[in-house]
Amino acid sequence: MADPGAFSFTVGTRIPGRHGRTGVISTPHGDIATPAFIPVGTKATVKAVLPETMRELGAQALLANAYHLYLQPGPDIVDEAGGLSKFMNWPGPTFTDSGGFQVMSLGVGFKKVLAMEAVDVRSDDVIAKGKERLATVDDDGVTFRSHLDGSKHRFTPEVSMGIQHQLGADIMFAFDELTTLLNTRAYQEKSLQRTHEWAQRCIDEHERLTAARTHRPYQALFAVIQGAQYEDLRRKACRELESLRGSAGTGFDGYGIGGALEKHNLGAIVGWCCDELPEDKPRHMLGISEPEDIFVAVENGADTFDCVNPSRVARNAAIYVAEGRFNINTARFRRDFTPIDETCDCYTCANYTRAYIHHLFKAKEMLASTLCTIHNERYTIRLVDRIRESIEGGCFDEFKAETLGRWKGRSPV
User: Fold this and answer.
1) Which of 286, 242, 294 is nearest to 267 (CA)?
2) How far apart are CA 234 and CA 293, in angstroms?
3) How far apart are CA 194 and CA 168, in angstroms?
4) Contact, 238 vs 273, CB < 8 A?
5) pLDDT in tens, 72-104
6) Three-state DSSP class for residue 355
7) Who's near 235: CB < 8 A, 6+ residues apart?
8) What letters, b where the CB count within 10 A reaches 16 and e where it falls short, cover 386-412?
9) Is the pTM of this model over 0.85?
10) Whole-angstrom Cα distance, residue 370 to residue 315?
């Protein structure tokens, strides 16, 4: 069996009176100093940017998507290439999600974003307006149609584990059912039980595949905590997932906090989970990247987090700077020959002006997406690096107040 000791987590400096802390996650492909932002390379690439560039930007790890890589090029090809890191020429640690988010979010037409605000309507047959259902869930798994060609597929916990083992990421996630804020309380309870049962099946299959694939390094398995905005369900999920063991005594190596939630409840939900979770295992927050969300997640106990947003908005001309976010595609930047951000140390800010990047977008040149993605990813990585430094230096609250004071001022030009 591959050695589980190749993965570990060490707690460092704590934020006094809160769950937030620094730490180090050790994996077969290197260490991750936490808190850490994990950029998303959905299809084994951060769109528009070389993997080598992501290393230069300070990325410690990248996250790829099991659903998309299953459909194209296929996990067998990635496995034959030597695993995700070798396939994409990325020397550091990698994460893969279980495919559950994409199967269900694309399946009900919500694309990359699920509801972040609760509404009065409750339904257990959630579907985005004007969309056709592409996925159906039952107690054994999910049947879905590919968003690429309409072909029919089925994911179960065992299938998801098989795909992720072939992809070979250092950290992978258990297959879970994604719910939305539109679902009823009764359905959230039913779904939580289903996710719990799937989690046990994931542990069992993970043990089996780890024993069978001794030619590959150990892959850590994280549970995914659901429960929407309900405190009792979130706490229950944490306790039950922590208690699960395989036949060889294997438990989860870490925990992912997932599901749709109300933005203003982010800190409370992370805090509820971290009240219940073991101190000596890492916690990953799925899908956040806005500065205010990052600070809230970190101080309440999140060690790592991922989000596609920095690269996605960059391709639409949205730029992050200390004072907020602005669109470089507007007319006022046509003759602005200053960098995007004079305080930024990224390649884009060192070599190009707002006027040039404005021109690239107007000319529909691909380089526009590359230059803006470089900047936005560096902005986010650097922010989290400085948060980590502020915790170690005992000045987290001061740094938070200063940073968010500027960000919320929203006067970038």
Assistant:
1) 294
2) 19
3) 26
4) yes
5) 999 999 999 999 999 999 999 999 998 776 566
6) helix
7) 227, 272, 273, 275, 276
8) ebbebbeeeebeebbeebeebbeeeeb
9) yes
10) 8
How confident is the model over 226-269, as pLDDT tens digits?
999 999 999 999 999 999 999 999 999 999 999 878 889 999 99
Given the residues 79, 97, 170, 303, the one annotated as active site: 97
CB 259 within 8 A of CB 238: no
360 in Cβ contact with 303 (< 8 Å) = no
Residue 62 tokens, joined: 């990248």
The residue annotated as part of the active site, out of 170, 303, 306, 341, is 306
In DSSP terms, which residues pair with 143 in a beta bridge? 136, 154
Per residue in 19-77, pLDDT (tens digit) is 999 999 999 999 999 999 999 999 999 999 999 999 999 999 999 999 999 999 999 99
The closest of 245, 242, 219 to 1, measured between CA atoms, is: 219
Tell me, yes or no, if 275 is annotated catalytic.
no
Tokens, residue 116: 């972040």
In DSSP terms, which residues pair with 255 in a beta bridge? 223, 283
Assess whether 149 carries a catalytic annotation. Answer: no
Burial of 89 (0-12, 13-18, 19+ CB in 10 A): exposed
- Single-letter amino acid, residue 400: K
Tokens of 386: 């400085």
Neighbours of 380 (CB within 10 A): 25
